[in-house]
Amino acid sequence: MTAHGKLTGKIALVTGASRGIGRAIAQRFAAEGALVVASARRIGTSAEDPGTLAETVAMIRQQGGRAMALAADLEDPAQRDHLVSRAAEAAGGLDILVNNAGLAEYSPIEAMPLGTFERTVDHYLRIPFVLSRAAIPLLRARGAGWILNLGSVTALSPARPYQDFDRAGGVSAYAAVKAAINRFTEGLAAELEADGIAVNSVAPSTAIRTPGSERYIPDGYPTEPVEYLVETALALCSVPARRHTGQIAHSLHFPLAQGLQVRTLDGKGELPPPVIPAWAHPALGQPELSAR
């Protein structure tokens, strides 16, 4: 089976697209026809340079998709503040903004340097705020649009009795900021619904092993395939705001509840329906299956 062109004619800016979840979203969106502006700190010297935008763009083009690389260090205010306008100018507009980039640094609060806390707030709240603010008039000019923020299941309150991860994982500050981005998502969705601009959040239901997360995931922990999160991202960025906006979606629960067919990153293959594992956060529950 081939992809269905759900994003044909759309322009998507995906931050943190040199590897991991951002790269996967860029691949899947391009497979559905979007022109993807892939952004990260560096472009790289060649398509063989691992973990770079050059490699991401080469992978997309090899699959028949369209993509361009745009380097930006989001910790540099000048580069951060001009990324959205640069992307729109290079690509000819903007329809979708995916706020994926981030740098997770876990530490118990007592031992956390203030600089680590400030970087966490910058990456997961200030940067999405700045990029979203810059994107809104561009999306409004197109008559509709989509903003997607990357959330985290850690934003949910720790379940009792506390697990070892919650006791010693040092995730509290990161999780608090991820909870804030969920509330930001819901509030911005309300502000922009009348403009036809959807604002949603997507997070893993459990954990996805990526170059950025693997140091925090114990060896042998059963992680989930990234394709389920990516299919959720696509669903939230390809339908009108009146259908899905203000959603705090999770990668296994949303496709199951919506009856989505989950596809491979090139859009050509199919994955089985997700299964909610016993270790998923109990607050997520078991989704009711869609009647569709």
CATH homologous superfamily placement: NAD(P)-binding Rossmann-like Domain
Fraction in beta strands: 5-15%
Total number of strands: 7
Task: State the strand order across the main sheet.
Answer: 3-2-1-4-5-6-7
Helix count from the secondary structure assignment: 8
Mean pLDDT: 93
Series of secondary-structure elements, N-terminal to C-terminal: EHEHEHEHEHHEHEH
What distance lies between the first and last C-alpha atoms, to the nearest angstrom? 21 Å
**From the helix content, strand content and strand pairing, which structural class follows?**
alpha/beta
In the CATH hierarchy, what is the class?
A: Alpha Beta
CATH topology: Rossmann fold
Which CATH architecture is right? Answer: 3-Layer(aba) Sandwich
Notes on the protein architecture:
There is one protein chain. This protein has 292 residues and is α/β, with parallel strands linked by helices. Helix content is 37%, strand content 13%. The chain has a seven-stranded parallel β-sheet, sandwiched between helices. Helix 3 (77-91) packs parallel to helix 4 (114-142) and helix 4 packs parallel to helix 6 (172-192). The mean pLDDT is 93. One of its GO terms (molecular function) is oxidoreductase activity. Residues 10-205 form the Ketoreductase domain. Keywords: Oxidoreductase. Pfam families: adh_short.
